[in-house]
From TrEMBL:
Keywords: Fatty acid biosynthesis, Fatty acid metabolism, Lipid biosynthesis, Lipid metabolism, Membrane, Transferase, Transmembrane, Transmembrane helix. It is a multi-pass membrane protein. GO terms for molecular function: fatty acid elongase activity. Its main location: membrane. The chain crosses the membrane at residues 31-51, 106-125, 131-150, 162-188, 200-220. It comes from Psilopogon haemacephalus. Its EC number is 2.3.1.199. This is Elongation of very long chain fatty acids protein. It is found in: Membrane. One of its GO terms (biological process) is fatty acid elongation, saturated fatty acid. One of its GO terms (cellular component) is endoplasmic reticulum membrane.
Length: 233
């Protein structure tokens, strides 16, 4: 199903983009504000819920269990928010719809990120594999800030460039942590406590490394290269 939804998303995105070629972009300011603020609030609540469980595991059982534990799937509070986290990957591609409908620049990172995350997250959730806690906690946290930033921007307020740089830096750090987490899972996967499969390890490894490269590339071209150009000018 996740592959179907991902394929449908891509067809819809590029279909709308083609449809909008000869048309003026929509403003959609109010819907975008509401959309971004709703996702920011949702992510903030999710972050609090998941970090509460994460802190408990870290303080009582240590790092290994925080990575390997399946309790995130079954704990009365975290299981709901892990489920909502997975479902949110079906909603977040709505970001791309706003981009194409407003005729803003659609970069590869955007649609690649949404389409692949949807598939891998759902696949991992189905098998209740290790390594769901950290991605959920970090993703919720960063999205809470990122979507708040989008809300403020959509409302027409100017945001310091340093804030945007900090957000992208946090995304780079997030992917680096994911890569490190996957390396740990590879070392620990023979342990019965750390349940996963080679398929999901391969998929997530490809995903996290590619995200890390793409976010680093985005940071360089958006902030460092543009700064160098402005200095030369």
């Amino acid at each position: 199903k996740s592959v179907f939804f991902s394929a449908a998303y891509l067809m819809l995105v590029f279909g709308i983009q083609h449809f909008m070629k000869q048309r003026r972009g929509y403003q959609l300011r109010t819907p975008l504000i509401l959309w971004s603020f709703s996702l920011s609030l949702f992510s903030a609540i999710g972050a609090v819920r998941i970090w509460k469980q994460m802190a408990l595991i870290l303080s009582t059982k240590g790092l290994k269990q925080s990575v390997c534990s399946q309790s995130f799937y079954v704990h009365p509070i975290s299981k709901l928010w892990i489920y909502l986290f997975v479902l949110s990957k079906l909603l977040e591609p709505g970001d791309t719809m706003f981009i194409v409908l407003r005729k803003k620049k659609l970069i590869f990172l955007n649609w690649y990120h949404h389409s692949t995350t949807l598939i891998v997250t759902w696949y991992g959730y189905k098998d209740m594999v290790a390594g769901i806690g950290w991605p959920a906690a970090l993703n919720f946290s960063i999205h809470a800030i990122t979507y708040l930033y989008y809300t403020v921007r959509a409302a027409g307020f100017q945001v310091p460039r340093s804030i945007a740089m900090a957000i992208t830096s946090s995304q780079v750090l997030q992917m680096l942590i994911y890569v490190i987490m996957n390396i740990l899972i590879i070392f620990w996967m023979e342990d019965k406590v750390c349940h996963t499969t080679w398929t999901i390890v391969f998929l997530t490894s490809v995903l996290y490394v590619s995200f890390l490269v793409l976010f680093c590339n985005y940071f360089f071209h958006t902030y460092l290269r543009s700064t160098q150009k402005s200095k030369r000018e």
